[in-house]
Specification:
This protein is an alpha+beta fold. The chain folds into 2 domains: 89 residues, Diaminopimelate Epimerase, Chain A, domain 1 (Roll), CATH 3.10.310; 162 residues, Diaminopimelate Epimerase, Chain A, domain 1, CATH 3.10.310.10. Helices cover 22% and strands 34% of the residues. It is built from 7 helices and 14 strands. Strands 1, 2, 3, 4, 5, 6, 7, 8, 9, 10, 11, 12, 13 and 14 form a 14-stranded mixed sheet that branches. Strand 2 and strand 3 form a beta hairpin. The longest helix is centred in the first third of the chain and has 13 residues. It is globular and about 50 Å long.
């Protein structure tokens, strides 16, 4: 599976297998060109749509449970006639690391001035709903677009962390014409991903970060939109719904639609 993912060279490749435990419907493993992931959002939603396209999922079924490396992950299904219209995956509730004070190092790994981060008044922080990522707030959308991966600075920043993640997710909450809550990008060079156009596994934690730091209210948390991949020319709209009760995050969902792009056969000798 790792060899196939490296050969295909997509951000992620998924492999659907028979269920391994009674509380799941299928087993799925997810690989980047460089490594296997514990979970991921974009591949989970995409695979759900692929299964519907092949007829393995059909209405009126409204739920599928994937067995991922983090455990059972349920996906709820919305149909439009016989076609799958939307899917929501439930992620693990978040874990938050302490704020990371190395603003200069974070800015350097993104090729940006320190002020691009400092002006936000928000912390750099590691958050996980199954896939740990470092979240770096950026003041403006323009500065998000200006970011470039500086590999030496990346290594210096990540190596200084006690338990470094593979992903850096950076975003601006500057308001734009698209009405999105966040304008986002993601780098993960150690996974063989220069940049990812949509990162559902980091989008759930993004929503949790925005709730934790008061960027969105509990009332707004059920309808967060992250626009990602614009700089790549591959815009993706990632929907995020965070359930909040008595100031505590009790549920995390990430959803969206997938578009059929192509199909083929792979011969393995």
């Amino acid at each position: 599976m790792q060899s196939i993912a490296k050969e295909m060279n997509f951000s992620e490749s998924t492999f659907v297998l028979p269920a391994e435990r009674p509380d799941t419907d299928v087993r799925m493993r997810i690989f980047t060109p460089g490594d296997e992931l514990p979970m991921a959002g974009h591949p989970t939603i995409g695979t759900t749509f692929a299964l519907a396209r092949t007829g393995l999922l059909a209405p009126p079924r409204d739920r599928l449970v994937f067995g991922l490396n983090v455990g059972p992950i349920p996906v709820s299904l919305t149909w439009r006639g016989d076609e799958l219209a939307f899917a929501w995956m439930t992620q693990l509730t978040p874990t938050f690391g302490p704020p990371i004070g190395n603003v200069r190092g974070a800015a350097a790994m993104l090729g940006l001035p320190d002020e691009a981060i400092a002006r936000t008044g928000l912390p750099i922080q590691m958050v996980s709903c199954g896939l740990p990522s470092v979240f770096v707030p950026i003041a403006t959308r323009r500065e998000v677009d200006q970011a470039v991966l500086e590999r030496a600075a990346w290594s210096a920043f990540m190596d200084a962390l006690e338990d470094p993640p593979d992903c850096a997710f950076f975003f601006s909450v500057e308001v734009g014409a698209d009405g999105a809550t966040a304008y986002s990008r993601m780098f993960a060079p150690s996974l063989g991903i220069g940049e990812d156009p949509a990162t559902g596994g980091a989008s759930g934690p993004l929503g949790c970060y925005l709730v934790r730091h008061g960027v969105v209210t509990a009332e707004q948390a059920g309808a967060i939109l992250s626009v990602q991949g614009v700089k790549m020319g591959r815009p993706s709209h990632v929907h995020i719904s965070i359930g909040v009760e008595q100031d505590e995050i009790v549920s995390v969902r990430v959803g969206g639609e997938s578009v059929f792009a192509g199909e083929g056969f792979l011969y393995i000798g």
